[in-house]
Structure formats: structure tokens, C-alpha cells
Amino acid sequence: MKTSFFSLLLLLLVGACKPQSEEATTAQGQVKDSTITGSDKDENGCLASAGYTWSKLNKECVRMFTGLQLNPVDQANTEDETLAAYVLFSEDRKQAEVFLPNQESMVLTRASEGRPWVKNDYQLVAWKGFIFKKGQTTLYAGDGEIGQKVTGSADPEAE
User: Fold this and answer.
1) Beta partners for 53?
2) What is the CB neighbour count within 10 angstroms for residue 56?
3) Confidence of residue 66 (pLDDT cuts 50, 70, 90)
């Protein structure tokens, strides 16, 4: 009797000392999402979950999708925002920053009014809206509708 009592006690102690999993679980045994909302700031402090990304041109966090949207010309479904490129202009419109899908943005410069914005082989041309080209190949085109530039924080009290 004494042996079975100590065996039961030992079994209970071993079960109580079992290390818990690092991930919290629900009553149904499903793993909870341990991601904290708003904890996805990049190296520049931009909150990606709120749609912000770093602008080389403006030197601040911006929502690129509030700029000019250019749709890929070789895609059947050109309304997919994940395939679109976006353009933000400097205040004096001498420079344009182009945000391409899954690539780092690039800043293009134009020599004078009426000329295209250029960087190496890339050109942004204002023609029946805007077209973005590499060499002679048109990659993206858009109607020229420009949204409002949004900068800063997604928290309305912070602005």
C-alpha cells in the first residue's frame, strides 16, 4: 500500500513538472497566434501591418498605395494590387520613387519639365497617364490617378 501511494505521488509529481510547450494552446488543443498586433516594424520603424513602407525619396514611412498605381501590361488580371507598381513624387515633381512588387524601390530623376524620370535603363513617362519602361519594353501603365500621400503613423492620436 505504501509503495503504491509513493508510486502514485511520484507519477503526479513527474506529470506536474512536465515542461510546457512554448506556444500557448486553446481548450480545444489548437495553437494560439502569439503574434502581437503592431509588432512588425521594419528597420526604419515603418508598421507594415498598417501598410507603411520606407520611402527613400521622402525619408519617412509612407503608404505607397496612396500614390499613382501602375498595372502590369503583360498580366491578364491587372487589377491585382499585389502585382501593381506604385509611384510617389517629390514635392517639386523632379523625382519619382517607384515601388515594384517584391523589390526594393528606386528613385528616378527628370532633367526638366516634360521629360521622363529616368534611372539607368528605367523610365517613367507621362503619356496618356503614365508608363514605366525598362529599355523599350513597357512594364507598367496607369491612368494617372494619384491618391493622397499618407505619412506618419496609423494611430490617429499620434498625428
Assistant:
1) 62
2) 12
3) confident
Q: E strands, 42-155, where?
A: 53-55, 60-62, 68-72, 85-89, 95-99, 106-109, 117-119, 122-126, 130-134, 137-142
How would you label 32-43 residue by residue, b for 16+ Cβ within 10 Å and e otherwise? eeeeeeeeeeee
Task: Calculate the CA dihedral of residues 138, 140, 142, 145 and round it to 10 degrees.
Answer: -130
Q: What is the pLDDT of residues 80-129, one digit of tens each?
A: 556 889 999 999 999 999 999 888 899 999 999 999 999 999 999 998 89
Residues 6 or more apart whose CB falls under 8 angstroms from that of 65 comprise 51, 81, 86, 147
User: What gap in Å lies between CA 62 and CA 99, rounded to an integer?
Assistant: 11
pTM value > 0.85: no
CA–CA separation, 144 and 8 (whole Å): 76
Cell of 72: 502590369
